[in-house]
Write a structure and sequence with these properties.
The protein is 22% helix and 38% strand. It is of the alpha+beta class. The chain folds into two domains: 19-88; 92-225, Sandwich (Jelly Rolls). Strand 1 (19-22) and strand 2 form a beta hairpin. Helix 1 runs parallel beside helix 3 and helix 2 packs antiparallel against helix 3. The structure holds calcium ion (CA). Calcium ion binds next to strand 6 and strand 13.
Length: 226
């Protein structure tokens, strides 16, 4: 009698191999944690809600089998959630860098500001001036925009702009912020521009450029955002 061909039995799934199906990852949680530790998986893409839902379903089942297993899962899921929360938290780069506190100021002067939070701004900014900020911490997740607190009563046709450079005053700018007339030298506005993604700790150079030599900007502070 001919043997009936049998499909091979499915791989036995060990009790501990609890599989996750998340957008961006499919596999056991301990593998996800290994990859996360080695930064080989994009945690920003993992849905913590989906993780928690699957975790709870597993816990419900595992509770009946082995309490110890459920405890392991709780620890692993908590650790992963903590990792992700670190990714999502704004890093030190959210803090403002006060223009007047720049490590180096070329061609500008500080003055008391009339902006709402007080302190000082730098003024008399014109073509060729610059600021250097040391040790600006952009954090682990990429900073993708610059917000500048600006005031200006610049004349038409000056076309002033802030060029944002990383590590060197002569590197190609990661972004440019054009500065128009805000209605007065103490009429403050927050203006933003996209920048090429930056992570880690760097010196930041703001170089000021314009089509004419007129003063075109008062600057209170800058902030990099994610
Ligand atoms: Ca300031």
């Amino acid at each position: 009698m001919a043997a009936v061909a049998e499909s091979p039995p499915p791989e036995p799934v060990p009790a501990d191999a609890l599989l996750l199906r998340l957008d961006g990852f499919e596999g056991p949680l301990d593998l996800l944690l290994e990859l996360a530790r080695g930064q080989k998986v994009d945690l920003a893409r993992i849905s913590i809600l989906a993780l928690v839902e699957q975790y709870l379903a597993v816990i419900e089942g595992a509770r009946r089998i082995r309490l110890e297993l459920a405890a392991d899962w709780l620890v692993m899921a908590a650790w992963l959630t903590w990792l992700k929360s670190r990714l999502l938290l704004p890093s030190g780069s959210e803090a403002a860098d006060e223009a007047e506190s720049a490590a180096e100021k070329n061609g500008v002067e500080a003055q008391d500001t009339e902006d709402k939070d007080g302190g000082q701004n730098i003024g008399w900014v014109s073509n060729g001036d610059s600021l250097r900020f040391d040790d600006v911490n952009f954090g682990d997740s990429p900073a993708t925009s610059l917000v500048a607190r600006v005031a200006s009563a610049v004349a038409d046709g000056v076309n002033g702009r802030i060029e944002i450079r990383i590590d060197s005053a002569t590197s190609p700018p990661v972004g440019n912020l054009p500065i128009g007339n805000t209605g007065g030298w103490q009429t403050w506005r927050s203006q933003a521009t996209d920048i090429t993604a930056v992570t880690g700790v760097h010196a930041v150079f703001l170089t000021f450029a314009a089509d004419r030599g007129d003063d075109f900007l008062n600057l209170n502070y800058i902030k990099f955002t994610h």
